[in-house]
Amino acid sequence: MEIIVKPYESRYHESVIDVLKHLWDFPKKERMDRFDWLYESNTNPSFREPLAVIAVNEDDEVIGFRGWVPGIVWIDGVKYVIARAADVVVAPKGRRQGVFSKMTVFSLSYLRGKGIDGILNLSSNSQSNPGYLKLGWKALVQLNIWYHFRFRSFIPLKDGKVYENNNQRIEIFSYIPKGLVIPSDEYISFSMNDGQLDWYANRPNKQYVTSVSYDVKGDITSVFVIDISLKVPALIYSYYINDIKICKLAFNLLCRRVQSRIISTWGWALSNKQSMMLHKIGFIQIPFYEKLKKKPPILIRAIGNEEDVSGWCIGNKDMRVIGNWSIQMIDNF
Fold it and tell me: Would you say residue 224 lies in a domain?
């Protein structure tokens, strides 16, 4: 079989949706909605075009798809774009013929040509991980899962509730409010400005609840977003400045809205500030449970010359140095 790898084009839309049934175990309409949001509709503010490649055979039949999700990071006031490995699938007739490797290798030059500054894989598995390592990816650090356990409140909160506390205001939303402006930090971490959080809010078949606290000047002091469409609700985004007391109150109010006994979140190489915040609002880690799960590590890949330090850098930050990163869950694909 002849295998040709090339950038995704809209004329292959229907064929790709069909191939994705081997990856996404849900109805065609839901596959289409999710694909269009991630790739086809070009609404991701990080990059106004799809980041994806396909593999076709000699009959121009789609036998593989490899998708990437762009994310903005700010370093020393300069904006960079990282591509995260997202969906990859090979149709049954194309398996065991190197399609996965060909699409992944082709993606390196493809992403470089698009001006992407770094490549990251947050979701490798036991089957794909060895393949990535053979192709030059490097293991960076293990993913850390955090859990928050609580009793359900006898008085659940209603949406749209506003609370005043020491001249600070806390609002509870049954969605992700648009237009939130959140300061960036000095680490390689995803920026939720530039419309990023607004884009996530439009993900199909998802339901989010949010708490936002403001100081007397109206500036944001904390933001928490929980995905309640999951079996175990997950804190997909958190931010706070320095008032841990109002931070804890805002999170606890949001938990009363969620009404779940367990809330999870994940992160890796978290900054001391992020780790302290999770600990202060009641999240804990269960190391022995995570060892049992044996999840593969986070992977990174040089976008430039992998033999040169500069090839592994985003701005002046070396991706291979764990201390340069601070990533908490924003969403999973």
Answer: yes
